């Protein structure tokens, strides 16, 4: 049986945020065909205590605490003339864990999840390297620079430039560079000239996100408009602030009891301050499905969105009417089963229509997800890419 080293920037369990969801399902898929050796970082205390679950899927695993803060990462990156994203995930103990794993096991493939972790692939490694970029991280910083204050804009443009250079170097060495959508893959090719670029789309666990399972709901009176996501992530923060300030006051004119629920862990202070009679800020919840089940409309008003948005797939799987920005809808084959808007007036008009009568939109979205986005089908191309089909049949 083959041995694969899986390098991850976060522990791929539990699958409760976008980056961990994809890593979780990729790791489980690989573990069906090979011995997987995981080296991952943890940045929350709970992620140091998943040994039993990781042992179910991994032949070995090591979890390293990521201790470097943002300020230290920025200072280190400036001194070393490297991207902050790389400095933030640099850790000597992680490098030692990688070396120990390579020395102890006959690793023939290194699967790198997220670009920051490519710094740990040894220069002398002669086996197969698969780089799962997911999306074009450097381009995100170019987006951040637009409209930012001058000092921040300079830093974001620096990050874009240096990280894009790093990504191109990684892709030149990798046997394959993976992205979650053709739009992201095309953008990466245009920015780097990379040739060995493939698309492995995100999927959804339709058995877990199943409206037929029945949920008590969130128990809120009046139409409930729901946003889900990690609430210390800048694009999510900007999206909910914009929606709460620019859209909700207009919605309340025609729906006085409507409320906007911001559902997700680690809300930053500027999100917490949005809480009011019309805006709920839940913080971390035990199960996001209850909130989705209670939603009259699920919104994803992101201005910056790279790749396929799990929050949109989850709402579609729960058969909810989804209203998303063009950026959040990009890359998802929604086949007309979700509504797209980008202006306050567009959101208000769509919300009015969806609250009045969503028709078959929710059930149609569910059917589309079932047809198109089950994880086994989405990850199937990995078998041929890694030569797992032949090994599994042997």
TrEMBL record:
Gene3D superfamilies assigned: Glycogen Phosphorylase B
Pfam family, one: Glyco_trans_4_4
InterPro entries: Glyco_trans_4-like_N (IPR028098), Glycosyltransferase_grp1 (IPR050194), Sugar_tfrase_PEP-CTERM_Stp1 (IPR017521)
Start and end residues of each Glycosyltransferase subfamily 4-like N-terminal domain: 23-203
Chain ranges passing through the membrane: none
Domain of life: Bacteria
Protein's recorded name: TIGR03087 family PEP-CTERM/XrtA system glycosyltransferase
Record organism: Sphingomonas qomolangmaensis
């Amino acid at each position: 049986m083959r041995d694969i080293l899986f390098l991850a920037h976060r522990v791929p369990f539990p699958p409760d945020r976008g980056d961990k969801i994809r890593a979780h399902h990729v790791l489980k898929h690989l573990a069906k065909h090979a011995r997987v050796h995981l080296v991952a970082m943890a940045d929350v205390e709970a992620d140091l205590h998943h040994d039993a679950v990781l042992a179910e899927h991994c032949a070995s695993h090591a979890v390293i605490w990521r201790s470097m803060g943002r300020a230290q990462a920025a200072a280190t990156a400036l001194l070393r003339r490297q991207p902050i994203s790389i400095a933030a995930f640099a850790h000597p103990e992680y490098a030692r864990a990688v070396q120990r794993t390579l020395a102890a096991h006959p690793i023939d493939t290194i699967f790198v999840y997220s670009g920051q972790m490519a710094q740990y692939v040894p220069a002398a490694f002669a086996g197969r390297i698969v780089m799962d970029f997911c999306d074009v991280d450097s381009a995100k910083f170019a987006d951040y620079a637009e409209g930012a204050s001058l000092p921040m804009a300079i830093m974001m443009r620096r990050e874009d430039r240096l990280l894009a250079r790093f990504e191109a170097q990684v892709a030149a060495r990798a046997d394959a560079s993976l992205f979650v959508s053709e739009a992201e893959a095309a953008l990466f090719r245009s920015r780097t000239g990379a040739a060995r670029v493939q698309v492995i789309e995100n999927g959804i666990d339709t058995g877990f996100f199943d409206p037929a399972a029945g949920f008590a709901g969130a128990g809120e009176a009046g139409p409930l408009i729901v946003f889900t996501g990690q609430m210390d992530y800048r694009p999510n923060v900007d999206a909910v602030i914009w929606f709460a300030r620019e859209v909700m006051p207009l919605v309340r004119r025609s729906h006085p009891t409507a409320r906007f629920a911001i559902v997700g862990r680690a809300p930053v202070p500027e999100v917490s301050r949005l809480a009011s009679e019309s805006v709920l800020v839940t913080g971390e919840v035990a199960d996001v499905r209850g909130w989705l089940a209670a939603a009259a409309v699920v919104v994803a008003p992101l201005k910056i969105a790279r790749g396929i948005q799990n929050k949109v797939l989850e709402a579609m799987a729960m058969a909810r009417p989804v209203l998303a920005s063009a950026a959040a809808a990009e890359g998802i084959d929604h086949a007309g089963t979700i509504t797209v808007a980008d202006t306050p007036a567009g959101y208000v008009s769509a919300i009015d229509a969806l609250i009045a009568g969503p028709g078959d939109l929710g059930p149609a979205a569910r059917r589309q997800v079932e047809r198109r986005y089950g994880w086994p089908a989405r990850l199937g191309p990995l078998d041929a890419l890694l030569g797992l089909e032949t090994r599994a049949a042997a």
